[in-house]
Specification:
143 residues, mainly beta, Immunoglobulin-like, 5-stranded mixed β-sheet, 1 helix, 10 strands, 39% strand, globular
Length: 143
């Protein structure tokens, strides 16, 4: 007796999450992000490096979905990503909001087969400050 097996469902690949942990009090006092930003991603096994620094190198390939989010180091501080400045031929991040909340995140897909090394900057909205603070040092997507 032979058993017919069902065709396998393609595995759903989870996005690479890139998280910025921001020392809001320090950044607001200094007026910049220098020494007040700690970047992490979920692709250490895939080759990402620079964890806990302002210069995270996220290892990517074409088709990878990237999800950027941020956290405040201080529990009562406000931080959000205002913009991600990156070459749109490499990745075009789009702002989204979790349903039923005002919590935002950014998501995009890597467009190039071998993106090389492309830096990007993040503009953060902090506290009640009107003008966003942009990263000075840049994280990168590395092919």
């Amino acid at each position: 007796m032979t058993t017919k097996s069902k065709p396998r469902e393609p595995a759903v690949k989870r996005p690479i999450s890139i998280t910025a942990v921001v020392d809001c009090v320090g950044a607001l006092a200094a007026g910049n992000m220098d020494g007040h930003l700690y970047m992490y991603d979920t692709n250490r096994v895939g080759g990402s490096t620079g964890f806990g620094t302002e210069e995270l190198l996220t290892k990517v390939k074409r088709g990878d979905r990237l999800l950027w989010n941020c956290l405040a180091l201080e529990c009562e501080a406000y931080v959000s990503i205002e913009d991600i400045v990156i070459d749109h031929e490499i990745c075009e991040p789009e702002r989204k909001v979790y349903p039923g909340t005002d919590v935002s995140y950014w998501i995009g897909t890597v467009k190039k087969t071998d993106p090389g090394t492309f830096t990007y900057q993040i503009r953060f909205k902090l506290g009640t400050r009107d003008e966003p603070i942009t990263t000075t040092l840049s994280s990168s997507l590395v092919g």
